Structure to design on (216 residues):
């Protein structure tokens, strides 16, 4: 199981705790990667990923992530259910969708997805076109200015309840390719920092390596 989270500051001791109950969490000895792909005078964000192995199949685990010493950068406790054994032939419930987006157009979908019961859904598969950060400049009042990161962060924060409790896989779509707002077109730094699916590859960690896949 790969756990992913983001912080507005670099966390040198980024860690993971897992247990069978909220009050039995133990520090896990696993590497945590940390990347940052865009920063300016007032903004920076670091994206953390940690893959935890050796978990029992079809078992509910509780977890938290963050700093060992600074509670400001430590999450609340969440839970997830691990995948079933390969020999388990019971019903598998998966939710599949694409072209999610942000703003008023997606509020009903957002409410539906966040109301899903983690005990009834085994996997969510988001088949591309995630938060439409590349179209941020088309939203009312956002033609002028840089809103790519704000929209991406807002979408991910709004999805935290479901993404923190149900295994969530994503597939890249054309809306993850880069930023093409006027603000990016006028800035070589912004254009280069956000090109070639950089935000997508930094924010998400899919099991490509573990499954013989290509890229992310």
């Amino acid at each position: 199981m790969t756990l992913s989270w983001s912080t507005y500051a670099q966390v040198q001791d980024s860690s993971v705790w897992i247990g069978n109950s909220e009050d039995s969490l133990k520090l896990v000895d696993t590497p945590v990667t940390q990347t940052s792909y865009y920063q300016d005078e007032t903004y920076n964000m670091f994206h953390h990923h940690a893959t935890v192995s050796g978990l029992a199949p079809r078992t509910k685990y509780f977890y938290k992530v963050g700093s060992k010493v600074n509670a400001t950068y430590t999450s609340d406790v969440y839970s997830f259910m691990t995948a079933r054994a390969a020999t388990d032939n019971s019903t598998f419930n998966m939710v599949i969708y694409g072209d999610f987006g942000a703003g008023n157009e997606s509020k009903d979908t957002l409410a539906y997805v966040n109301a899903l019961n983690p005990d009834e859904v085994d996997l969510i598969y988001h088949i591309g076109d995630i938060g439409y950060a590349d179209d941020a400049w088309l939203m009312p009042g956002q033609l002028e200015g840089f809103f790519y990161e704000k929209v991406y962060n807002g979408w991910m924060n709004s999805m935290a309840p479901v993404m923190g409790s149900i295994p969530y896989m994503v597939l890249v779509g054309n809306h993850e390719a880069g930023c093409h707002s006027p603000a990016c077109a006028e800035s070589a730094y912004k254009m280069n920092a956000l090109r070639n699916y950089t935000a997508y590859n930094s924010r998400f960690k899919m099991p490509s390596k573990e499954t013989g896949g290509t890229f992310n």
In short: Helices lie at 107-114, 148-158, 160-163, 182-185, 188-193, 198-203, 208-211. Residues 56 and 162 are 22 Å apart (CA to CA). The chain has a mean pLDDT of 95. Residues 91-216 form a domain with the Purple Acid Phosphatase; chain A, domain 2 fold (CATH 3.60.21.10).
